[in-house]
Amino acid sequence: MKEKAGKIDLHLHSFYSDGQESPKEIIRHAREDGQSLISITDHNKFTFTQPQNIDGVTIIPGIEFSTAYWGLAREDAVEDHIVGLFPYGVNPDDFADLLENIRAGKKAYVKAILEDLATRNIHITMEEVYARADEKGDIGRHPVAEVLVEKGYEPDVETAMDHQVGNYSPYYIPSCRYIAYPLMEDVVKRIRACGGIPCLAHPYGYKLTEEEIEQMICDFKQAAGEVAAMEVYYELYLQDEDRIAFLERMQEKYGLLPSSASDRHRTDQPFASRGDMKQFEEMVRVLNETGLSHI
Questions:
Q1: Under a CB-based contact definition with an 8 Å cutoff, are residues 231 and 201 in contact?
Q2: How confident is the model over 104-141, as pLDDT tens digits?
Q3: DSSP code string of 145-183
Q4: Are the C-beta atoms of residues 13 and 30 closer than 8 Å to each other?
Q5: Are strands 57-59 and 257-261 parallel, antiparallel or unpaired?
Q6: Most exposed of 36, 173, 283, 289 (fewest Cβ within 10 Å)?
Q7: Alpha-carbon distances of 74 from 70, 95, 182, 257, rounded to whole Å
Q8: What is the pTM of this model?
């Protein structure tokens, strides 16, 4: 799979999950930014199932799975995210059983969040959240954050997440108490069995110490086998030299493929700036040499 030289971004969101733009808009803006290859990795759903080239941009199928990770000595499982990249295409039916319980659990989770907000005199209805849901009617914390902004409780979505409902909020409610996410190791092994590349997303995004992050990386690698990637060059980390240095050490120590990702949700957010086609070609080389459906 030879491609021309150019930038890559292997973690993007459209309005089919919690992004603002359509896939067509994302592709247009990616081309304008000089991206040669992208993956639209909506939450727990496939937006593309076959690789294709649109207006000079190669799109490979991807998905961002929410999973339950029990590898730490904690009362609750950690909700961590695994990006699945499928350079040769994917059949969504192969993952249906892993995703079937998420929607019902999210409704219960959002209900718990709204009840907690009400104890702080912040009043939002489920109807208001559903009005901000994605194209398929799925709800979660981002629609809640959008309503918080819309009603004047917070100035923007990032602040609403940080102050009220996100992982680093003082009021964070562990999602795995309400949502039956599939186990991390099951998702990783299924991605490999279906010819994909599992990638550990934004390793600093789970409110873990670096010791805990390393344990998660170790367990992820053990589940993935030889074909295992990690978002080392996650766009929001690039200004933090210590974080990048730590992730580069972990990548080398555990034999991981580096990925570049923006996790872009909105027009005003940048695309990934550190990746190039050589990085993706190395992923595909390792995938081919190891075997498309063999761990």
A1: yes
A2: 898 999 999 999 999 999 999 999 999 987 666 778 89
A3: HHHHHHTTSSSSHHHHIIIIISTTSTT---GGGT--PPB
A4: no
A5: unpaired
A6: 289
A7: 8, 28, 18, 29
A8: 0.90
